[in-house]
Design goal:
The protein is an alpha/beta fold and 375 residues long. The protein has two domains: 180 residues, Glycogen Phosphorylase B (Rossmann fold); 174 residues, Rossmann fold. The strands form two sheets. The chain has a seven-stranded parallel sheet, with helices on both faces. The protein has a six-stranded parallel sheet with strand order 10-9-8-11-12-13, with helices on both faces. α1 packs across α14 and α8 crosses α13. The longest helix is centred in the middle third of the chain and has 17 residues. The protein starts with a strand and ends in an 11-residue tail after the last helix. The relative contact order is 0.13.
């Protein structure tokens, strides 16, 4: 039995946190497992406390997105008291904390889960991101790359070829999704005749909800349609998106629904799920929509969405930048002849076993031993 630690920055709703709880639950069946949160804030705190793993919170609250460096000393003190083991840093937002906290620690090996596109051409920030990723690669006992698109970054491609990194697609429990979808309707709009387009995700620039609001505004000129976005965000960002919806003439047809512990109740009743992201790794929200057989529209920029939808066989793709193209794709999916997802989600099952294999390899590996080459 080994000592496994999962680190997340906070407990707010996200695909990262849902994956963390699922994988930690799987690992807890065979190992001492602890989920460590830098901050105790978050809609999913109660759910995290109900897991069969231990939950350690370093700071009780931040009020918003807590600073990463502020929790480094607390994590370092806690890790010094732990037996040898593996720390899995699950979220891109939080990697700096365990990286800095473990300097000079040989008894805690690190696995970094990378789930966001690295090769975003944004000048100095892109150059700094490249340096940061190379530091993480050098520090990692192993790497988990969420989605096949991340191999486009040459250092990750090399790490996969060496066996240092493995690809892990997001996964979903289709049986659980269908069961949770039977919950009562979460909003009255789903009981009315006007179709609802659904977006899922934190209110952050990555998710490109500005473009989705623009696209729905264009579509609303020719037909009745509503837009709901489920996900947490700051009051400032909520106000900005509300104003943007008003500017596009859909203020009365737009809802920021906040966070939920049952996304399937929303996704199953939506007429269309839209994923307009500027970048992703492997979108869990996309698979959650597919699991309840909701027609989808996805950006070609959204990580492995092109692969998941098999180049348009299981949903419509658009270029990720053109609001008219997004509006046209949504209109097609609202028509009498949508492209349906069928059973595509069943090809993307739960990934707890993949992570467990990766973690157990890191637990057993001798320093300097060669990595297992991919099959």
């Amino acid at each position: 039995m080994g000592n496994i630690i999962f680190y997340v920055h906070d407990l707010r709703t996200s695909g990262v946190l849902r994956d963390t709880m699922m994988v930690a639950q799987s690992c807890a069946e065979r190992h001492d497992t602890t989920v460590v949160a830098g901050y105790g804030d978050g809609f999913f705190r109660d759910a995290a406390e109900r897991g069969s793993y231990r939950l350690k919170i370093l700071r009780p609250a931040a009020g918003s997105v807590g600073p990463k460096l502020a929790v480094v000393p607390a994590l370092r003190r806690w890790l010094r008291r732990q037996p040898p083991g593996v720390l899995v840093s699950m979220g891109n937002l939080g990697h700096a904390t365990p990286y800095l906290a473990t300097r000079g620690m040989d008894h805690i090996r690190r696995i970094y889960r990378i789930s966001n596109e690295v090769t975003r051409g944004d000048g100095l920030r892109g150059a700094l991101r490249d340096i940061w990723m190379r530091l993480l690669i050098g520090d990692a006992a192993r790497l988990a790359l969420v989605g096949s698109a991340l191999k486009r970054y040459p250092p990750f491609g090399l790490a996969v070829n060496r066996g240092h990194a493995v690809e892990v697609a997001s996964g979903v429990d289709c049986a659980l999704a269908r069961r949770l979808a039977q919950a009562p309707s979460p909003h009255r709009w789903f009981d009315e005749d006007i179709p609802v387009v659904l977006g899922i995700g934190r209110l952050r620039p990555q998710k490109n909800f500005d473009l989705l609001i623009d696209g729905i505004g264009r579509l609303a000129r020719t037909r009745a349609v509503r837009l709901i976005i489920v996900g947490g965000g700051t009051q400032q960002e909520r106000a900005r998106l509300q104003q943007l919806a008003a500017d596009h003439g859909i203020a009365d047809a737009f809802l920021l629904a906040g966070e939920t512990d049952n996304i399937f109740a929303w996704a199953a009743r939506a007429a269309v799920f839209a994923l307009p992201s500027r970048w992703e790794g492997s979108s869990l929200a996309l698979l959650e929509a597919l699991a309840v057989e909701t027609p989808v529209v996805a950006s070609c920029l959204a990580g492995d969405a092109v692969e998941v939808l098999d180049h348009g066989c299981y949903g419509l793709l658009f270029d990720g930048e053109d609001a008219d193209a997004l509006a046209d794709a949504i209109a097609t999916q609202l028509s009498d002849h949508p492209i349906l997802p069928g059973a595509r989600a069943q090809d993307y099952g739960l990934t707890g076993g993949v992570y467990l294999d990766l973690i157990e390899d890191a637990l057993q590996r001798r320093p300097g031993a060669p990595f297992p080459m991919p099959a």
